[in-house]
Request: fold
Amino acid sequence: MHNQKTGEWRLTDSSKKASQLSSRKSWTFVDVPFAVNPSDSYVSEVFELQRKGRNQDSVYTMDEEEIESLQQIGYVNKGAVFTAYGGPMQGLDPIYQFITANGNHVLTGSSAQYQDWRDEGWTEDGISFYTVGFPNIVSS
Reply:
């Protein structure tokens, strides 16, 4: 989901939440960029942290230290929002996190998008998690 007004991106595994966001004029559905089998024994929870205000932002992470760091600078932990794979395995794709020029976090599993963002000078913030990517991946 993408908020045209604020530039914020949101990920969800809930069609109900996506529908609720879509009903607001500023949010649009973008795509389903990846999948995870939530019943796999080796998936872990991904947490959403949000910063409200003029420069709204959402961060998705499994990393407890990153969660603590973000909370110390004003992000609110919204809890686990979906599951993903915590490490590389055959058949899984990395989902990279970047920080934009205005300080917002964005995710991508697209190698083309990854390179474009690097070329634009955005800061790579590592791999957030691993999933099974779909060929329609653009950005998140």
User: Anything to note?
Assistant: The mean pLDDT is 82. Residues 64-72 form the longest helix (9 residues).
